[in-house]
User: Which sequence fits this backbone?
């Protein structure tokens, strides 16, 4: 396993309440896969991504748990030790690429700054590697485009530059936080294929954060479904999409239109996720669940492994 998370809890301590953004997360990410983390907005996906590299903004903090990258517990590392891993062995592709670049500095100069300071290269060596990485992410005319400012590039080209930046230090693990949110459908497909190729051709490991089950089906090998700060189902992509176990996973899948099947009416997922500062007693999904039993309203179900591949947090399987 390249990443193992044990009993991770991330809380935001506000003046009058505590927001339990991540609560009791246990997760293992195998090497050389695209691992999808999927759920509605507010489920804790991005908080989990930022917790892995310990970039939780105040007033949030990691309350308990461990994050093992290889054999290192990232939670216990000093900031100096962590900086040797963050941005080097673990990198991130942001949700909004325009926010990753200084609008007053040319793209190439920003990439040069990363290559020179992170890799300790000369300017000439850094420029050569940057061109290689831009070609790798299929940036058209990289020698020309690296001399442009961020506003002169399209959203897709800017996202390719952000991916090239993430690849510069040759990382072991790449975290992609909804990398196609701001792109149109055709560009989304190209970026997702690029991410898939990074895993297949370069043997990278990618954690892909998304709310889109279609993206999961197209790109991922394994999936963790999150709801209200917890993982409610884990499994291989084919198993989970063909036979979802948790009612929330089923609802997410049934709410997506399909081109290969005629459906008279989509089944909407009724209700809204609970406030993470006022989580309901029992199963967190029970107020929206059509299969809820009395025990669901009283007690929180554990995450139970049905076999070596599938796990589900639901009283229907306990």
Assistant:
């Amino acid at each position: 396993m390249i990443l193992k998370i044990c009993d991770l809890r991330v809380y935001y301590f506000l003046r009058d309440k505590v927001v339990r953004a991540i609560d009791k997360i246990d997760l293992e990410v195998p090497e050389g896969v695209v691992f999808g983390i999927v759920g509605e907005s507010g489920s804790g996906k991005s908080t989990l991504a930022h917790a892995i590299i310990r970039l939780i903004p105040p007033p949030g903090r990691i309350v308990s748990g461990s994050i093992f990258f290889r054999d290192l517990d990232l939670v216990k590392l000093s900031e100096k030790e962590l900086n040797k891993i963050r941005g080097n062995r673990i990198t991130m592709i942001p949700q909004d690429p325009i926010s990753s670049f200084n609008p007053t500095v040319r793209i190439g100069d920003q990439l040069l700054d990363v290559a020179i300071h992170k890799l300790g290269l000369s300017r000439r060596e850094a420029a050569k590697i940057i061109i290689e990485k831009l070609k790798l992410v299929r940036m058209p005319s990289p020698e020309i485009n690296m001399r442009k400012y961020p506003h002169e590039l399209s959203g897709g080209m800017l996202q390719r530059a952000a991916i090239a930046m993430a690849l510069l230090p040759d990382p072991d693990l790449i975290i992609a936080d909804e990398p196609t949110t701001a792109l149109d459908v055709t560009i989304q497909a190209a970026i997702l294929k690029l991410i898939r190729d990074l895993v297949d051709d370069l043997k990278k490991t990618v954690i892909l954060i998304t709310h889109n089950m279609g993206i999961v089906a197209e790109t991922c090998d394994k999936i963790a479904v999150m709801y209200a700060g917890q993982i409610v189902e884990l499994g291989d992509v084919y198993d989970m999409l063909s036979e979802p176990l948790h009612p929330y996973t089923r609802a997410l899948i049934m709410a997506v239109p399909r081109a290969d099947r005629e459906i008279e009416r989509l089944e909407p997922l009724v209700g809204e996720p609970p406030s993470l500062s006022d989580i309901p007693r029992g199963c967190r999904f029970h107020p929206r669940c059509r299969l809820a039993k009395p025990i669901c309203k009283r007690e929180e179900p554990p995450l139970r492994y049905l076999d070596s591949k599938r796990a589900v947090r639901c009283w229907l399987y306990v």
About this structure: The radius of gyration is 20 Å. Residues 185-202 form the longest helix (18 residues). Residues 85 and 191 are 25 Å apart (CA to CA).
